[in-house]
Design goal:
It is a single chain. This protein has 180 residues and is an alpha+beta fold. The protein has five helices and six strands; from the N terminus they run H-E-H-H-E-E-E-E-E-H-H. Strands 1, 2, 3, 4, 5 and 6 form a six-stranded antiparallel beta sheet that branches. A hairpin with a 2-residue loop joins strand 4 and strand 5. Helix 1 packs parallel to helix 2. The longest helix has 16 residues.
Length: 180
């Protein structure tokens, strides 16, 4: 809820920006706001993924995928995320949110995102997303039919496959007991 107005603002701005391709790159200029920081006066680690949502939304909106999703009642949902931090983003600091799809698997899309200041990476993440409609995952064949095929040669790095396998929880249809 705390980013709802900011998300709506970014969606509005994305509609007004030049079109993009889903398989290209998105760069969104941003700034660290007082609501983004913690007691150390830098971007709170819990905010990174929330702000990265805005970068993915920009790519999805500008590529036209958002309108196609809305017509079909589809929603994107994150299934796994990882992030590495290099430098802290400080209050009022300007940065750009860089976003691209680095590949797909049989169930979803993998986004790479970076927070960049004057050409230098401050944080980098990998986010695996699925698309759902009516509470069920949309098959990849259907997604690619609607969104278009990825460029030839787009290959997910092997380490990302391993990361996904090592971090996956059981399907929501299977038990996942807590046994601490």
């Amino acid at each position: 809820m705390h980013l709802l107005l900011r998300t709506l603002f970014h969606i509005f701005c994305s509609w007004r920006r030049p079109p993009a391709t889903l398989w290209g790159n998105s760069s969104v200029p941003m700034r660290v706001w007082p609501s983004d920081i913690d007691v150390a006066r830098h971007l709170n680690n819990g905010m990174y993924f929330s702000l990265m949502d805005l970068g993915r939304m920009d790519l999805i909106v500008r590529s036209g995928a958002w309108k196609k999703m809305l017509r079909r009642g589809w929603s994107p949902v994150s299934g796994a995320e990882t992030i590495s931090f290099r430098k802290s983003l400080q209050l009022w600091q300007k940065y750009s949110m860089e976003t691209r799809i680095i590949g797909t698997d049989e169930r979803g899309f993998y986004f790479e995102q970076r927070m960049v200041v004057t050409g230098e990476i401050y944080a980098q993440s990998i986010v695996w997303m699925r698309f759902v409609g009516k509470g069920r995952p949309i098959p990849m064949e259907q997604l690619l039919e609607v969104f278009g095929l990825p460029p030839q040669g787009l290959q997910l790095p092997a380490w990302v496959h391993q990361w996904q396998a090592n971090n996956a929880l059981p399907s929501a249809r299977n038990p996942a007991p807590h046994n601490w």
